[in-house]
Backbone:
């Protein structure tokens, strides 16, 4: 495919047009009869041994999950901290532990309103139980893995059903949100309307998603609450994990301009945060899990190349790229530039293929599917009109 050089100035033009276009209408969702549920449940951090179920209630509640390997769902789970069960809250995060690998589990989420939290006499309201959903834990050591990548939705929830319709028959164990789902983060209603409920209608009751933060997730008054709504592995925004033949490295590339830029009001410290990640990455590429994997895939929002020369790009290039080359990663998947492209490995710069997803404007949106077995990894990037605009095949070095 033709490779266009990235022009930072025209990217700024795209963003300006996005603002002028305004936000798309928010679809309405049915969330139960009592009005207690603000979202459907959504899955996070599903492993062979566990899963985290999240949901938001519209009123303060006590909440629990009923689950089990049959439709009887006769186990219960709550979350407790320091002896206190989470209650009188809105954002629910309940971990199911002790699960068996490669097993189908049924679950429903349940909340009961606390109408008055008196110290010695609680007042209880109605109870709401969700529909019964199910998910399957991964095998402990599977031979394959497959996933879907979305990036740069930028507060356009109608893009989710369009893009996911292009991959509806493609198997995936998780969906990876590769940054900039929002223009900036404001409040919980935005989180619900522009992300959680659209995903809940499409897949997140049965398929988990992971979230690599983009630079736009660091903006706005809600940015500091972002982590309340998600659970990545290790509860961090940079982490690694192995699933089947792929060892994943996820980095949080931070903001695109200098920490001192006036837009940030003196409230960001991404240089130090990226340096912390580089120290971690230097150790990560020496781990047996990294070295022994048939494929090493890096997922992060800002690409270190083909992304202009602003500070965020250049700092990622300076800190991370020597480690990517040294560690011999097989593939990097990014977003951010709003121009999809596949950029071949080049010994002068990056020794690995770099794939950048498009979006957010109409005609530029893309979705990726990646599937790997122990011999081959294949990535397809599909534009919103169904045209395949990227096809990367990588043979295992093992
Ligand atoms: Fe971005």
Residues:
């Amino acid at each position: 495919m033709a490779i266009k050089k990235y022009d930072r100035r025209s990217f700024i033009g795209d963003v300006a047009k996005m603002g002028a276009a305004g936000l798309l209408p928010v679809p309405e969702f049915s969330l139960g009869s009592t009005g207690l549920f603000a979202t459907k449940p959504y899955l996070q951090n599903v492993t062979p041994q566990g899963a985290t179920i999240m949901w938001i209630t519209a009123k303060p509640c006590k909440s629990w999950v009923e689950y089990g390997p049959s439709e009887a769902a006769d186990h219960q789970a709550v979350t407790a901290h320091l002896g206190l069960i989470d209650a009188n809250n809105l954002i629910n995060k309940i971990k199911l532990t002790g699960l068996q690998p490669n097993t189908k589990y049924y679950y429903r989420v349940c909340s009961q309103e606390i109408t008055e939290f008196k110290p010695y006499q609680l007042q209880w309201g109605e109870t709401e139980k969700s529909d019964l959903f199910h998910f399957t834990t991964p095998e402990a050591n599977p031979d394959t893995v497959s996933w879907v990548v979305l990036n740069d939705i930028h507060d356009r929830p109608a893009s989710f059903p369009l893009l996911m319709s292009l991959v509806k028959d493609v198997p995936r164990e998780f969906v990876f949100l590769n940054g900039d789902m929002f223009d900036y983060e404001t409040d919980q209603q935005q989180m619900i309307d522009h992300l959680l409920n659209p995903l809940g209608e499409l897949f997140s009751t049965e398929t988990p998603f992971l979230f690599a933060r983009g630079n736009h997730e660091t903006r706005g008054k809600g940015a500091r609450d972002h982590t309340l709504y998600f659970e990545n592995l290790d509860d961090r925004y940079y982490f690694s994990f192995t699933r089947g033949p792929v060892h994943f490295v996820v980095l949080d590339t931070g903001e695109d301009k200098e920490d001192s830029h006036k837009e940030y009001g003196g409230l960001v410290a991404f240089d130090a945060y990226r340096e912390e990640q580089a120290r971690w990455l230097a150790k990560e590429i020496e781990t047996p899990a990294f070295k022994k994997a048939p494929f090493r895939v890096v997922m992060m929002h800002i690409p270190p190349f083909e992304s202009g020369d602003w500070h965020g790009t250049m700092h990622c290039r300076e800190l991370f790229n020597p480690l990517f080359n040294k560690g011999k990663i097989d593939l990097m998947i990014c977003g951010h530039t709003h121009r999809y492209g596949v950029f071949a490995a080049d010994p002068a710069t990056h020794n690995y293929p770099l794939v950048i997803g498009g979006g957010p404007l109409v005609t530029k949106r893309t979705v990726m599917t990646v599937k790997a077995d122990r011999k081959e990894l294949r990535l397809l990037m599909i534009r919103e009109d169904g045209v395949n605009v990227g096809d990367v095949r990588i043979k295992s070095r093992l």
